[in-house]
Amino acid sequence: MERINRLKAKAAALPCEPGVYIMKNAAGEIIYIGKAKVLKNRVSQYFGAGNQHTLKVKKMVSNVEDFEYILCDSEFEAFILESSLIKQHQPKYNILLKDDKGYFYIKITGENWPRIRSAKQKENDGAHYIGPYNSAFVVNQTVSEANKIFKLPQCNRTFGNRYAKPCLNHHIGLCSAPCCKKISHSDYMECVRSAVSFIKGEHGSAVVELTERMEAAAENLDFELAARLRDRINAIKRIKDKQKVITARNERIDVIAMVSEGDKSCFCVLKYNSGHMEDCSQHVTESDDNAARSRYEFFQRYYSSREDIPRTILCDSLPEDYELLARWLSEKRGGKVEIIEPQKGDKYHLVSMCRNNAAEYLSQQSNKTGHQMQALAELAELLGLSAPPEYIEAYDISNTAGFENVAGMTVFKDGKPLKSAYKRFKIKTFSGQDDYESMREVLERRFTEYRNNDTGYGFGKLPDLILLDGGKGQLSAVKEVFAKIGISVPVFGMVKDSKHRTRAIAADGGDIVIKANRRAYTLVATIQEETHRFAVGYHHQRAKKSTLKSRLTEIEGVGENRATLLLKHYKTITAIADATVEELASVKGITLPVAQNIHNYFHN
User: Fold this and answer.
1) Looking at 471, 503, 532, which one is the last position of a domain?
2) Contact partners, residue 195, CB within 8 Å, separation at least 6
3) Rounded CA gap, 512 and 436, in Å?
4) pLDDT digits (tens, 9 = 90+) for 304-327
5) How far apart are CA 428 and CA 446, in angstroms?
6) Is the whole-model pTM more than 0.90?
7) In terms of residue numbers, what domain contains 18?
8) What 3-state class would DSSP assign to 198?
9) Same domain for 215 and 327?
């Protein structure tokens, strides 16, 4: 506490001017560098409202022993200095990206039947190498396309054995099968030479040359060769058309999206040039609850070591101080740079594709699928949550005109049902039909248990999100309970249409239409349907038991308690009816005269 008070007093004495602050640990090492428009206000926040800090900031503050600061003439000057100091000192709590200096090559092996492969380094093995390239994505994509277009083998088989059987690639038209002499050596070498020309970017000249050869073969009545050449020309054209994703104009565009999961975030960067994707890269960093700040730090670190700044940067959500970032990038590029969050159209679809790639990459390091992670990320963005909800609880009420009023609670962990955590509730405090009062009772019982038993498991765990089957009435009832108990959890309603299908999410500001967000919609609809099924199933179970008890209580000497004992022991009315007097009398609580009455009831 003495340390925090000392740092708080030092922060309170800072000037109200722009500058850079430098946090240090007990060993004097720099652990965080930041910039501020008003130094006093920004630095004081670290040592003031500690309960409002994100986990990452709390960890950093717990290690701060002292700090220094440098005054600047403007916030932009502070930004430039911050970027320079971060690059120089690489502080532990700033987002740091590995500076990938690796190079990649396209290798044409020196064998009698050459193969085209990707390689991480040049070797003295007699092969021909094309490169270097900065991106493994570009190399792998180019090698794959060249092998498919020119039907070159991608396997490791030995070539020239006429008795070998061709593989599936040959049967689907992707390989000329040199392994079993389906192509002559001279024709194979011609394919390799054409593939190398294609790799070197000579698409236009390759098409012209192949067209001339195709026409000559047709004139010579060599229609088989002409057909093969025609297929190659069409394959090259298909590849070129497939790559024209956004525009044919000569411009560069970067697309950046972020997906978070647990303590990790993944940024995906797609780079386009003249409508063609040039590169795809993923960068995993430590997660932070402040998504806008994370995006700011990523932009700053990613572009500080790059000179190829595009005119347009598309992103899934705007970073903190994006106007400051755009000004910095514009000066670095020597021309205007725009940072845009597209809302619709082709560019919006590019951002969605980028987010999908980030989710898929991050899913490889967890038990979730990319689809589930994307759905949770989409739902978090839709509801304004700081992070994707890992643990979701959903509630529904079920009764028949107030008879056997019950509730069901389902749990979805990482986007999947966690059935071991499902709970059932019988409404106890009133009789009749009142969904609002029922929901109020259920949530009060559930979170009172949390307050009394904060263990991190079952009712002792606080969910990241609560979804209620219903609208504003249910929301109001639950928020009253939360205010009473002192619980803070995001809570929303799930609203159905006239056909009992999920229509929207109820929030304080009105309904949020979600059908346009396909993954989030599918997830919410699944949660709503599963919760309804669970609650209705429990209601039917209790209603059935209640009906059976009513029939048993018609027997002389059998009340509610004895009816319960009989159903618990025999499970069904049929089993009770088939039991002998002696078997019935062996049930605890059933006397011999009562057993005789039960037997007579079913058999007379």
Assistant:
1) 532
2) 116, 146, 147, 149, 150, 152
3) 21
4) 877 778 999 999 999 999 999 999
5) 13
6) no
7) 2-89
8) helix
9) no
